[in-house]
Amino acid sequence: xxxxxxxxxxxxxxxxxxxxxxxxxxxxxxxxxxxxxxxxxxxxxxxxxxxxxxxxxxxxxxxxxxxxxxxxxxxxxxxxxxxxxxxxxxxxxxxxxxxxxxxxxxxxxxxxxxxxxxxxxxxxxxxxxxxxxxxxxxxxxxxxxxxxxxxxxxxxxxxxxxxxxxxxxxxxxxxxxxxxxxxxxxxxxxxxxxxxxxxxxxxxxxxxxxxxxxxxxxxxxxxxxxxxxxxxxxxxxxxxxxxxxxxxxxxxxxxxxxxxxxxxxxxxxxxxxxxxxxxxxxxxxxxxxxxxxxxxxxxxxxxxx
Length: 305
Known about the structure:
Blueprint: E1 13-19, H1 25-36, E2 41-43, E3 52-59, H2 66-70, E4 74-82, E5 84-86, E6 95-98, H3 106-114, E7 118-122, E8 131-132, E9 135-136, H4 137-142, E10 152-165, E11 168-175, H5 181-191, E12 196-206, E13 215-216, H6 217-233, E14 248-251, H7 253-260, E15 275-280, E16 284-291, E17 297-302
Parallel strand pairs: 1-13, 3-12, 14-15
Antiparallel strand pairs: 1-3, 2-3, 4-11, 4-12, 5-6, 7-10, 8-9, 10-11, 15-16, 16-17
Helix pairs in contact: 1-6
């Protein structure tokens, strides 16, 4: 049997990319993957082409934590234009209708914006990657097809009105997974009876990377030119940095051996439930685990590094 050719080098870790405007998340992922010469990579939830900001890219064994980053809370800084609805909910779409904003007051805007704090139901937009009968909604939307979407329960942990001048509304939002900022703006515009759409959107943080600096595509390209793969690899964050909020459990060599064989092990002073970070001898990260019904530490997703 012919041996399968290696399509790239083994790269493991996470890049906190500052996604540039005007490019899809998948296209920028492919550019960065090519720079690293990596054989495996994925992103952690798309940002619209219009949007910029934090887009964690997971390489190699790091792709095993991408689902957990997809579930993480996010923070955004945005500017909306009130008085216009568009087909896409942002400035890339065609204007559907216009309304006057002359009667809007700061007090009324503040009241409506504040009403979205907490748990709310949100209907996902047609221009989204959610699938309907195997087809992404945005593909149907481009054909002029609109299908019914079920509302989803999301949480707006914090929403700050930064500025309201004329028809410009500037907000900062911290929200749960599954929140569509374009829809949030449309809903605020609806309640203000003037419509609205996003004209600037920047993701400023993904939990747990609120305080971590991002790296731009230009910087990565320069790093590749000047220092090659060795310099690029210095930009990677360790895989377990995505899970710092989880409690950690240290296993001795025997425990780690059996766990890697798929067996649950008894660990003294382990948490009684929940997800865990697993380390061999307190140092080497070996993956994600959980507490089974017998109170033992069981493997959930192990890391082969």
